[in-house]
Amino acid sequence: MEARHLRYALAVAEHQHFGRAAASLGIAQPSLSRQIADLEREVGERLFDRTPAGVFPTAAGAAFLAPARRALCEMASAVAEAGRAARGETGRLRLGFIGSALLRFLPSVLTPFRRDHPGVRLELREMSTARGSAALLGGELDLVIGRGAPRGPGAEHLVSVTVGRDDLVAVVGKGHPYAGLRTVTAAQLARQHLIVASADDEPAVRAGLRALLGADASVLDTATEARDLRTIIGLAGCGVGVGLGPSGMRAAGRSDTWFCAVTPRTPLPDLVMSYRADDRSPVLAAFLAEARRRGDDLPG
Questions:
Q1: Domains and CATH numbers, the chain
Q2: What is the pTM of this model?
Q3: What is the DSSP letter of 296?
Q4: What is the helix (H) or strand (E) element at residue 80, kind and residue range?
Protein backbone atom coordinates (compact mmCIF):
# COMPACT_ATOMS: atom_id res chain seq x y z
CA MET A 1 0.00 0.00 0.00
CA GLU A 2 1.40 3.37 -1.03
CA ALA A 3 0.55 6.95 -0.17
CA ARG A 4 -1.04 7.42 -3.59
CA HIS A 5 -3.58 4.71 -2.79
CA LEU A 6 -4.67 6.67 0.26
CA ARG A 7 -4.94 9.87 -1.79
CA TYR A 8 -7.00 8.08 -4.42
CA ALA A 9 -9.41 6.69 -1.86
CA LEU A 10 -9.87 10.08 -0.23
CA ALA A 11 -10.49 11.71 -3.61
CA VAL A 12 -13.19 9.15 -4.49
CA ALA A 13 -14.85 9.68 -1.10
CA GLU A 14 -14.79 13.45 -1.60
CA HIS A 15 -16.18 13.54 -5.16
CA GLN A 16 -18.39 10.42 -4.86
CA HIS A 17 -17.64 9.78 -8.51
CA PHE A 18 -14.73 8.03 -10.24
CA GLY A 19 -14.67 10.43 -13.19
CA ARG A 20 -14.60 13.60 -11.11
CA ALA A 21 -12.10 12.10 -8.68
CA ALA A 22 -9.83 11.04 -11.55
CA ALA A 23 -9.98 14.54 -13.04
CA SER A 24 -9.03 16.12 -9.71
CA LEU A 25 -6.07 13.75 -9.45
CA GLY A 26 -4.97 14.25 -13.04
CA ILE A 27 -5.19 10.56 -13.96
CA ALA A 28 -7.44 8.52 -16.23
CA GLN A 29 -10.67 7.12 -14.78
CA PRO A 30 -9.90 3.47 -15.69
CA SER A 31 -6.55 3.74 -13.92
CA LEU A 32 -8.23 5.14 -10.80
CA SER A 33 -10.82 2.37 -10.82
CA ARG A 34 -8.07 -0.27 -11.01
CA GLN A 35 -6.10 1.36 -8.21
CA ILE A 36 -9.13 1.40 -5.91
CA ALA A 37 -9.86 -2.22 -6.77
CA ASP A 38 -6.25 -3.13 -5.98
CA LEU A 39 -6.53 -1.29 -2.66
CA GLU A 40 -9.71 -3.15 -1.74
CA ARG A 41 -8.02 -6.47 -2.49
CA GLU A 42 -5.08 -5.53 -0.30
CA VAL A 43 -7.31 -4.38 2.56
CA GLY A 44 -9.51 -7.44 2.12
CA GLU A 45 -12.75 -5.42 2.29
CA ARG A 46 -14.99 -3.54 -0.10
CA LEU A 47 -14.37 0.13 0.63
CA PHE A 48 -16.90 1.73 -1.75
CA ASP A 49 -20.41 0.97 -2.96
CA ARG A 50 -20.74 1.71 -6.66
CA THR A 51 -24.33 2.86 -7.27
CA PRO A 52 -26.10 4.74 -10.09
CA ALA A 53 -26.36 7.72 -7.74
CA GLY A 54 -22.64 7.78 -7.03
CA VAL A 55 -19.78 6.06 -5.23
CA PHE A 56 -20.07 5.99 -1.44
CA PRO A 57 -17.84 4.60 1.34
CA THR A 58 -19.00 1.39 2.96
CA ALA A 59 -18.75 0.99 6.73
CA ALA A 60 -15.32 -0.54 6.19
CA GLY A 61 -14.45 2.34 3.88
CA ALA A 62 -15.47 4.99 6.38
CA ALA A 63 -13.37 3.23 9.05
CA PHE A 64 -10.43 3.12 6.61
CA LEU A 65 -10.60 6.74 5.43
CA ALA A 66 -10.22 8.47 8.80
CA PRO A 67 -6.82 6.93 9.66
CA ALA A 68 -5.82 7.21 5.99
CA ARG A 69 -6.34 10.96 6.18
CA ARG A 70 -4.29 11.12 9.40
CA ALA A 71 -1.55 8.99 7.85
CA LEU A 72 -1.24 11.36 4.89
CA CYS A 73 -1.05 14.32 7.25
CA GLU A 74 1.67 12.57 9.25
CA MET A 75 3.60 11.79 6.09
CA ALA A 76 3.40 15.42 4.95
CA SER A 77 4.55 16.52 8.39
CA ALA A 78 7.44 14.05 8.27
CA VAL A 79 8.55 15.39 4.90
CA ALA A 80 8.37 18.97 6.18
CA GLU A 81 10.33 18.11 9.33
CA ALA A 82 12.98 16.33 7.28
CA GLY A 83 13.37 19.43 5.14
CA ARG A 84 13.63 21.70 8.18
CA ALA A 85 16.28 19.45 9.71
CA ALA A 86 18.25 19.35 6.45
CA ARG A 87 18.20 23.16 6.34
CA GLY A 88 19.42 23.43 9.94
CA GLU A 89 16.09 24.83 11.17
CA THR A 90 15.71 22.17 13.86
CA GLY A 91 18.14 20.20 15.98
CA ARG A 92 20.69 21.08 18.63
CA LEU A 93 23.85 23.17 18.80
CA ARG A 94 26.19 22.84 21.80
CA LEU A 95 28.31 25.96 22.10
CA GLY A 96 31.04 26.69 24.64
CA PHE A 97 32.45 30.20 24.96
CA ILE A 98 34.52 32.50 27.13
CA GLY A 99 33.00 35.71 28.47
CA SER A 100 34.93 37.87 25.98
CA ALA A 101 32.90 36.34 23.15
CA LEU A 102 29.80 38.07 24.51
CA LEU A 103 31.32 41.52 24.13
CA ARG A 104 31.08 41.73 20.35
CA PHE A 105 31.11 38.49 18.37
CA LEU A 106 28.37 36.32 19.86
CA PRO A 107 25.63 38.99 20.09
CA SER A 108 26.08 39.81 16.40
CA VAL A 109 25.56 36.14 15.45
CA LEU A 110 23.26 34.74 18.12
CA THR A 111 20.58 37.41 17.76
CA PRO A 112 19.85 36.81 14.06
CA PHE A 113 20.46 33.08 14.38
CA ARG A 114 17.83 32.68 17.10
CA ARG A 115 15.42 34.88 15.15
CA ASP A 116 15.81 32.82 11.96
CA HIS A 117 16.13 29.38 13.61
CA PRO A 118 13.63 29.33 16.50
CA GLY A 119 13.36 25.54 16.26
CA VAL A 120 17.04 24.97 17.11
CA ARG A 121 17.81 24.09 20.72
CA LEU A 122 20.88 26.06 21.79
CA GLU A 123 22.94 24.68 24.67
CA LEU A 124 25.22 27.55 25.72
CA ARG A 125 27.98 27.03 28.27
CA GLU A 126 30.36 29.70 29.49
CA MET A 127 33.71 28.07 30.26
CA SER A 128 37.41 28.68 30.15
CA THR A 129 39.35 28.21 26.94
CA ALA A 130 41.03 25.08 28.30
CA ARG A 131 37.77 23.46 29.39
CA GLY A 132 36.02 24.40 26.17
CA SER A 133 38.82 22.97 24.05
CA ALA A 134 38.77 19.71 26.01
CA ALA A 135 34.98 19.48 25.68
CA LEU A 136 35.15 20.02 21.91
CA LEU A 137 37.90 17.44 21.45
CA GLY A 138 35.92 15.05 23.66
CA GLY A 139 32.76 15.41 21.58
CA GLU A 140 30.80 17.22 24.31
CA LEU A 141 30.53 20.43 22.27
CA ASP A 142 29.90 21.20 18.61
CA LEU A 143 31.57 24.60 18.65
CA VAL A 144 33.85 26.49 21.02
CA ILE A 145 35.04 30.10 21.19
CA GLY A 146 38.16 30.77 23.23
CA ARG A 147 41.54 32.47 23.30
CA GLY A 148 43.67 30.79 20.69
CA ALA A 149 43.12 27.52 18.85
CA PRO A 150 42.68 24.28 20.82
CA ARG A 151 45.80 22.19 21.26
CA GLY A 152 46.45 18.56 22.03
CA PRO A 153 45.60 15.18 20.55
CA GLY A 154 42.86 15.55 17.96
CA ALA A 155 43.37 19.29 17.39
CA GLU A 156 44.60 18.55 13.87
CA HIS A 157 41.04 17.50 12.99
CA LEU A 158 39.57 20.88 13.95
CA VAL A 159 38.88 24.01 11.94
CA SER A 160 39.87 27.13 13.90
CA VAL A 161 38.99 30.61 12.69
CA THR A 162 39.83 33.99 14.21
CA VAL A 163 36.67 35.94 15.02
CA GLY A 164 38.14 38.76 17.11
CA ARG A 165 41.37 40.50 18.06
CA ASP A 166 42.06 42.40 21.26
CA ASP A 167 44.74 44.46 22.94
CA LEU A 168 45.09 44.84 26.69
CA VAL A 169 43.26 47.84 28.16
CA ALA A 170 42.91 49.25 31.65
CA VAL A 171 39.66 50.41 33.25
CA VAL A 172 39.35 52.68 36.30
CA GLY A 173 36.62 54.47 38.19
CA LYS A 174 35.92 58.10 37.30
CA GLY A 175 37.47 59.16 40.63
CA HIS A 176 40.78 57.35 40.02
CA PRO A 177 43.92 59.40 39.28
CA TYR A 178 44.24 57.66 35.92
CA ALA A 179 40.73 58.68 34.81
CA GLY A 180 41.08 61.01 31.83
CA LEU A 181 44.41 59.55 30.68
CA ARG A 182 44.53 58.10 27.18
CA THR A 183 47.23 55.57 28.07
CA VAL A 184 48.88 54.05 31.12
CA THR A 185 52.27 52.37 31.22
CA ALA A 186 53.38 49.09 32.72
CA ALA A 187 55.23 51.06 35.41
CA GLN A 188 52.03 52.90 36.34
CA LEU A 189 50.09 49.65 36.53
CA ALA A 190 52.72 48.12 38.82
CA ARG A 191 51.99 50.81 41.41
CA GLN A 192 48.27 50.00 41.57
CA HIS A 193 46.08 47.27 42.99
CA LEU A 194 45.02 45.29 39.93
CA ILE A 195 41.78 43.50 39.07
CA VAL A 196 42.33 40.70 36.58
CA ALA A 197 40.67 37.62 35.15
CA SER A 198 41.18 34.37 37.00
CA ALA A 199 44.34 32.58 35.90
CA ASP A 200 42.29 29.40 35.49
CA ASP A 201 39.82 31.11 33.14
CA GLU A 202 42.22 33.27 31.11
CA PRO A 203 45.76 31.81 31.42
CA ALA A 204 46.82 33.43 28.12
CA VAL A 205 45.81 36.86 29.40
CA ARG A 206 47.65 36.27 32.66
CA ALA A 207 50.76 35.22 30.73
CA GLY A 208 50.55 38.43 28.69
CA LEU A 209 50.29 40.48 31.87
CA ARG A 210 53.36 38.85 33.39
CA ALA A 211 55.32 39.56 30.22
CA LEU A 212 54.16 43.17 30.23
CA LEU A 213 54.99 43.80 33.89
CA GLY A 214 58.32 42.01 33.75
CA ALA A 215 60.20 42.44 37.01
CA ASP A 216 57.08 43.91 38.62
CA ALA A 217 54.93 40.87 37.78
CA SER A 218 54.73 39.97 41.49
CA VAL A 219 51.99 42.60 41.78
CA LEU A 220 49.70 40.01 40.19
CA ASP A 221 50.13 37.77 43.25
CA THR A 222 47.96 40.17 45.29
CA ALA A 223 45.57 41.13 42.49
CA THR A 224 41.81 40.73 42.86
CA GLU A 225 40.60 37.96 40.55
CA ALA A 226 37.25 37.97 38.79
CA ARG A 227 35.65 35.34 36.62
CA ASP A 228 33.58 37.78 34.57
CA LEU A 229 34.75 40.81 32.59
CA ARG A 230 31.78 42.83 33.75
CA THR A 231 32.86 42.10 37.31
CA ILE A 232 36.28 43.58 36.51
CA ILE A 233 34.58 46.70 35.16
CA GLY A 234 32.21 46.89 38.13
CA LEU A 235 34.97 46.58 40.72
CA ALA A 236 37.03 49.21 38.93
CA GLY A 237 34.02 51.50 38.92
CA CYS A 238 33.72 51.02 42.68
CA GLY A 239 37.31 52.21 43.15
CA VAL A 240 38.77 48.82 44.08
CA GLY A 241 41.70 49.26 41.69
CA VAL A 242 42.72 49.16 38.04
CA GLY A 243 40.98 46.52 35.96
CA LEU A 244 42.80 44.85 33.10
CA GLY A 245 41.29 42.94 30.23
CA PRO A 246 40.68 42.77 26.47
CA SER A 247 39.87 45.93 24.53
CA GLY A 248 36.44 44.47 23.79
CA MET A 249 35.56 45.41 27.37
CA ARG A 250 34.96 48.94 26.13
CA ALA A 251 31.64 47.71 24.74
CA ALA A 252 30.51 46.94 28.30
CA GLY A 253 31.71 50.22 29.81
CA ARG A 254 29.66 52.07 32.42
CA SER A 255 29.12 55.76 33.07
CA ASP A 256 31.31 55.56 36.19
CA THR A 257 34.34 54.05 34.44
CA TRP A 258 37.17 55.20 32.18
CA PHE A 259 39.23 53.09 29.78
CA CYS A 260 42.90 53.62 29.00
CA ALA A 261 45.09 51.98 26.40
CA VAL A 262 48.12 50.17 27.84
CA THR A 263 51.64 50.92 26.62
CA PRO A 264 53.56 49.20 25.34
CA ARG A 265 50.75 47.77 23.24
CA THR A 266 50.04 44.24 24.42
CA PRO A 267 48.11 42.10 21.91
CA LEU A 268 46.14 39.26 23.47
CA PRO A 269 45.68 35.86 21.86
CA ASP A 270 43.03 35.98 19.13
CA LEU A 271 39.44 35.11 19.88
CA VAL A 272 39.06 31.86 17.95
CA MET A 273 36.03 29.78 16.97
CA SER A 274 36.72 26.07 16.52
CA TYR A 275 34.69 23.09 15.32
CA ARG A 276 35.32 19.61 13.99
CA ALA A 277 36.23 19.53 10.30
CA ASP A 278 34.13 16.40 9.69
CA ASP A 279 31.00 17.73 11.42
CA ARG A 280 28.26 17.76 8.77
CA SER A 281 25.51 18.98 11.07
CA PRO A 282 23.09 21.27 9.17
CA VAL A 283 22.62 23.28 12.38
CA LEU A 284 26.35 23.94 12.63
CA ALA A 285 26.42 24.86 8.94
CA ALA A 286 23.57 27.32 9.51
CA PHE A 287 25.39 28.93 12.44
CA LEU A 288 28.60 29.26 10.43
CA ALA A 289 26.64 30.77 7.53
CA GLU A 290 25.25 33.39 9.91
CA ALA A 291 28.79 34.15 11.10
CA ARG A 292 29.93 34.56 7.48
CA ARG A 293 27.15 37.05 6.84
CA ARG A 294 28.63 39.38 9.44
CA GLY A 295 31.87 39.51 7.47
CA ASP A 296 34.14 37.03 9.24
CA ASP A 297 36.63 35.23 7.04
CA LEU A 298 35.23 31.78 7.60
CA PRO A 299 35.91 28.91 5.21
CA GLY A 300 33.01 27.98 2.96
A1: 3-86 (1.10.10.10), 91-164+270-293 (3.40.190.10), 168-263 (3.40.190.10)
A2: 0.70
A3: -
A4: helix 59-86
